Amino acid sequence: MCSAYIHTDQNDQYLGKSGDHNCHLPVPETIELSIFKEKVKERIVKETVAIGKIYDNELASATLSEAALALASLPNEAS
Fold first, then answer.
1. Could you count the other beta carbons within 10 Å of the beta carbon of residue 36?
2. Does residue 13 lie in a domain region?
3. pTM for this predicted structure
């Protein structure tokens, strides 16, 4: 796992970095899941619908690769 971090402010403006990111290639499935989880979190904050329902709806409408789907958590396991 990569130990590098990019630090941004609340407006997603770059502030700095820490750690080394030269030790591996990017993992597309991880990027897909990160984007998916961010969408779920945004809806959870904005809506009053049950978290599991939001997760299910987003998972159904997502265009994730088979590898990313295999890595995705079930709604009751998601954190």
1. 19
2. no
3. 0.60
